[in-house]
Amino acid sequence: MNVLLGIGGSDDSLRALEDTVERARAAGDDLTVAVVENPRSDRTPEEVEDRVRAVLADAGLDADVRRVEGDAGSRLVAIAEDEGFDMIALGGGETSPMGKINLGSIAQFVLLNSHVSVKLVR
Amino acid sequence: MSGDRVYPDEPAGPFEAPPLSFEDREGRGIEIRPYPADADGESGEDEFEALIEMYTAFDPEDRAQGIPPSRESDVRSWLETILGDGGYNVVAWDGETVAGHATLVPDGDAYELAIFVLQAYQGAGIGTHLMEALLGHGAVNGVDRVWLTVERWNRAAVGLYKKVGFETSDAESFELEMTAQLADPA
């Protein structure tokens, strides 16, 4: 499967990175990692990209890593549709102090707009 | 979920602090008490187990945003977290049975609110009393700012929150975020 992982640096997106890399290695997926701009994230795109490369190196997985500028949700949907990806993978939401799951704005946009299957990683 | 929430200018309350009791619309005598019951922060094993019983009996259809958890072991660890230091809780009792529970969990200088009423006790006015008692309990303990999220289709819950003084602060997500600023205790 040809998988596009969107990662903006929130904690749930970092968990999605670990999970998706592990899954890609086990299943032999072709993985592309798109480092997107998430205004709600404290981590810079540079830090996120370093983290992505480190996780890939640890796993011994070869994946295409690219920086994506502009509105994260719409760019991810456009890339997935234009380039024929089978699936978009994303972080599945942050947890509030109470333990409530709150879906991020990027995931909400992608879920409602993507014609490609979407996987939310919990 | 960031720290720059907007709070209403108009304060919510003041509300009567628990303990308090009332008769619900089904004629059941309901008592609302703070949890833990005494000032030392100690609460009986029996009270904790009664809470566990309510949550393990909770209808999965009434779960919201992943809580309460469904497995008993997960309920226990979740409750231990939200009943931990720094928060405020009130419980609605029908005799020795827990009918509902409302909680304020610390989040920086504000508190996140949630309320749960067991299915058999819904639609009897307990939620309103429980909310008011929780906000009254919070206010006498110095709680000022309270926020919550609610699934936007959950009209009953949104109506309840509005009735006690919450206003929508963020409507751009699947979940509505609502905030309230508590009035000084009466």
TrEMBL record, chain A:
What CDD domains does this protein's entry cite?
A: USP-like
**Protein name, per record:** Nucleotide-binding universal stress protein, UspA family
Domain spans labelled UspA: 2-122
UniProtKB/TrEMBL annotation, chain B:
Q: Which domain of life is it from?
A: Archaea
An annotated Gene Ontology molecular function: acyltransferase activity, transferring groups other than amino-acyl groups
List residues of the N-acetyltransferase domain.
Answer: 30-183
Give yes or no: UniProt keyword Transferase.
Answer: yes
Q: Answer yes or no on keyword Transferase.
A: yes
Query: Basic and acidic residues bias located where?
Result: 22-31
Q: Source organism lineage?
A: Archaea, Methanobacteriati, Methanobacteriota, Stenosarchaea group, Halobacteria
Q: Which UniProt keywords apply?
A: Transferase
PROSITE patterns per the UniProt record, alphabetical: GNAT (PS51186)
Q: What protein does this entry describe?
A: Acetyltransferase (GNAT) family protein
Spans annotated as Disordered:
1-44
